[in-house]
From TrEMBL:
Matching Gene3D superfamilies: Cytochrome P450
Alphabetized UniProt keyword annotations: Heme, Iron, Metal-binding, Monooxygenase, Oxidoreductase
Sequence similarity: Belongs to the cytochrome P450 family.
Name of the protein this chain belongs to: Cytochrome P450
Superkingdom of the organism of origin: Bacteria
Spans annotated as Disordered: 1-31, 136-165, 490-519
Keyword Iron: yes
Upper taxonomic lineage: Bacteria, Bacillati, Actinomycetota, Actinomycetes, Micrococcales
Amino acid sequence: MPTTDPIADPTASTPASPADTPTTSDPITPTDTATLEVARGSRVAASAERLEDIRTRPLERMDPGSPSAFRDESVFAKFERLRREDPVHYTPAEHTRMGAYWSLTTWEHIMAADTDPETFSADAGIVMRPVDDGSGASLAEAYEDPSERAAAQSQQSAQPQQNAQPFQIQSLLSMDPPEHDLHRQIVAPGVAPTRLTDLEPLIRRRAQKILDGLPVGEEFDWVDLVSKELTAMTLATLLNFPQEHRRRLTDWSDAVTAIGGPGQAIETPEERVAAMGEFFATLMGVLESRRGEEPALDFASLLAHSPHTGEFTKAQLFGDLVVLLVGGNDTTRNTITGSLYALSRWPEQFAKLRSGEAKIPSMVSETIRWQTPLTHMMRVATKDTELGGKTIRRGDRVALWYVSGNRDTAVIEDPDEFIIDRKNPRRHISFGFGIHRCLGNRLAELQLRIIWEEILVRFPEIHVVEEPVRTFDNFVRGYESMRVLIPRRNAPAGKRTAERSAPEAGSPAAAATSGAGAR
């Protein structure tokens, strides 16, 4: 019988360590004190017993989707073993809280599935989440009228589904052609090359203002003052959302992606539904206002003025808005943090960047590979099929682990190393492949390039003073916070002055500056 797992029961205490009691899934934190680093330069160390358990655990009990393994980086030991011993791996329901699923862990197999939407459909949802927790809460409550919801529940009760995933959404990412193509075409102009050319000066001005407002000589949270701030500003522009309320977008994005539990961004399913209901109602108001204005290239206007949007169901419109929200937030935000973190772990690479020996675009691509901000996408088999010598049955759920494919030694040399001058740094699968390739990948790269161009102009060094707090999640590989210290600024050059620009009143940087020295 499976032992209690805090993922499914947030009130449960942490189980015994693997050496004491065999468990079917990993505890939130290891309970022993012996440690062993799992990646060079990391101060986060999985327990020695935890790593030994990964090396010796029967393969059928291996659960790559356990969120705790992403927080302490022991997940890379799992994927290394699976790529070597069982690259197409099945985790049965009795050994996971995520419902039974297959894992594709090699570059070859991930590419094969990602480019074959006829066999591996996105229609059943793209994110691995714990199965129904018994609360009855569903994201449908965020957009459906109570009467509509009652009717839907009646239909669902007549046709129960195995391994129900209560927080899946319909969206352009979880659709197959031809519906997928229509939904993607509507919003694609919002991140087209000409649009990015127009956005670049605005993003640069904002990056300059953010960096000029950072405290010097005092510790601060890089995630809050830099990563969240720049991405929230850009996301608000993309959605035509008021800049003064931009952090609501960040909070809503966290609400939809977080695995709920005590101390998390969302603690209960009901909190998630409430947050998403607020998001949907607010964005529908934005869309309605855009219908009375001239067409423009922000996502709200593109959706409002499309002749097809009126044919979308509420579920589809809600899903498209959520995907634009999360896609515009998580990739850039966590890679901005991940880039500084990785450079601090590999100081010789930071030296290459400062000296100009390695170029910023190359570093950006390497960071996106090394970080892999979204770890996986889920698919469902539409028919019986064979992959890697295994038979995947129709209806089986399949996880495409991009985070593992990006560490595949068959394709990438020294993949666990952070090397910013690789010969082909854009060779990664962080953005996926095929029809579902990330819509905003060029915008993410643009923001990262700009922020680092402006960082190098201003700061000769930035110190990460504490190990970052990682997100407890198996989908978003991100950071909750990361304390840093900027000792000094570069001397003024050209038209730049030594006087620091005053941060905007009410901004996080202003608050951090006013509280300098309080910590």
